[in-house]
């Protein structure tokens, strides 16, 4: 099973600040949250001025079936957890509080994006309701004649709903190249003759399609040279029909894969489930702040500033927020 690193973007109701909403997210931390048949547990804090967190999903069933191939037979093993133990799925997230864009780990049976967005939507709606109530009271006290329209104006101030979406972006030559630890070959297809690709310069004016397929040797020692060569190839692009694809070893997963310029990227990393488990804390879930899984997310958001925004220089947004006005409803 593969575990994907997915990007997402959130938008709050008008005039709500990140601190107003995150204040309520924090109020859900360190306690059990029930959702359908499963129970969830949230840990969250700040690291490097990013909002980070861990969400655990505890599954109700205690039994597992395991098959062992032995002596030409498929042997059945039935295992049952102790009463004080739960099957657990875990995801870690990281959010830039300035751009409201972030990353989380996603795989089959994990904490779903729907649940993650549900937590933020509920916090948004709760903050919105409280601020509308406060604004209505404020407008009513300012002018007795405006009491009847106070609620309407308060709702207009904080109109709009929470929304969230998975990020998907066309791969540019730069973010394509940056995904590789090793580049082994490149194919560039052009609508015109490529320089030096024709045996006779006179023939080039008749060429309507040309392709150059290059394979590289001594890959590790020449990565920078190879990247420069790939960029120079793409700089010869003449029309929107021109295409370039790369093959190599991906930095995030170690997978050997072809990638294309212009492909929509809806994942920012890929690892096997076994590798993902290795990256999670070994003993205590509270150690997630120093685990490899979170450090990898932080590395990605810091590197992809065009997508996720620059690293916040401080967490002063928590101090200047009007979060103290939010009433617990």
Detailed description of the structure:
The protein is an alpha+beta fold and 329 residues long. It folds into 2 domains: 2-63 and 87-168 and 285-325, no CATH class; 173-264, no CATH class. The protein has 9 helices and 16 strands. It has helices at 18-27, 113-142, 147-157, 173-177, 223-234, 273-279, 292-303, 305-308, 317-320, and strands at 2-11, 32-35, 38-47, 50-59, 63-70, 73-80, 87-96, 101-106, 163-166, 169-170, 180-190, 210-215, 243-250, 256-260, 264-265, 269-272. Strands 1, 2, 3, 4, 7, 8, 9 and 16 form an 8-stranded antiparallel β-sheet that branches. It has a 4-stranded antiparallel β-sheet with strand order 12-11-13-14, covered by helices on one side. Strand 5 and strand 6 (73-80) form a beta hairpin. It is flat. 22% of the residues are buried.
